[in-house]
Amino acid sequence: MQLILDVGNTRIKWALFRQRELIEQWDCSPEQFRSILSDTRKKYPEVNRILVASTGQLDSKQVKVLNSWHKPHWLSHQSVLPFENNYLTPESLGLDRIGLMAAAALHHSDKNVLVVDAGTCVTYDLLYANNVYTGGVISPGLSMRYRSMHRFTAKLPLLDPELPDLDGGGSTAQSMHLGAVKGLLLEIDGFIDHYRREVHDLMVILTGGDADFLRDNLKNDIFAHSNFLLEGLNYLLELNSD
């Protein structure tokens, strides 16, 4: 059994796999890490491989506790990857983007695949059918758009995302929803259209925390896959097991 840890700045995501089957997933705060790890060791003693994808940071005590169970593989650009990484600055390539391209290689190795990850930022990453990756696009995510309008102006309120009335815009709130939500939908459709003009027979995968909110309002045909990143990270653990 494999344990995947996706360590962010404010949350740590956990996923348990048996071979390539996702068994369970949950998340916790960094402060809860040691107690959750202790509970996980007791509940799942059959775990024998661990991968850590860390954009946040575990402290030395947390790392020591983790190593006392199984020494994990710490994902980096130097890990064994299932694709040719031609990113110009591979050391700065986000581990989530590496994981998403690994999932594309796992599930669709014979296709040109554009993965749109609608999270804190929205990323657009293309894996060619010959398993070559050259880069992509990073854009502000949905919540970031709302927070930016509130933070960098004197009077605009902080709103929760809401699907706008496309004939609206008659109030400040509706205008902001149109700008944030409809603006992002138009951006995503625009990038998909751009890539489809450039790349023949393109498959588009939509994933990330805002995927369910956005998916039914895109004009392009896409495949939504909520666990795409976790499956990619699990595949990377498979490739990097000693």
Properties at a glance:
7 helices; Nucleotidyltransferase, domain 5; 242 residues
Q: Strand percentage, roughly?
A: 25-35%
Uncertain segments = none
Tell me which CATH architecture of the largest domain applies here. Answer: 2-Layer Sandwich
- CATH topology name of the largest domain, in short, is Nucleotidyltransferase, domain 5
Percent helix range: 25-40%
How many individual domains? 2
| Oligomeric state of shown chains | single chain
What is the fourth-level CATH superfamily of the largest domain?
ATPase, nucleotide binding domain
Number of helices: 7
Rounded mean pLDDT is 94
Under CATH at level 1, the class of the largest domain stands as Alpha Beta
Query: Any idea what the shape is?
Result: globular
Q: Could you state the order of secondary-structure elements as H and E?
A: EEEHEHEEHEEEHHEHEH
**Spatial arrangement of strands, main beta sheet:** 6-9-8-7-10-11
Radius of gyration of CA atoms, rounded to a whole number:
19 Å
Helix/strand-derived category reads alpha/beta
The biggest beta sheet reads: 6 strands, mixed
- Give the terminus-to-terminus CA distance: 15 Å
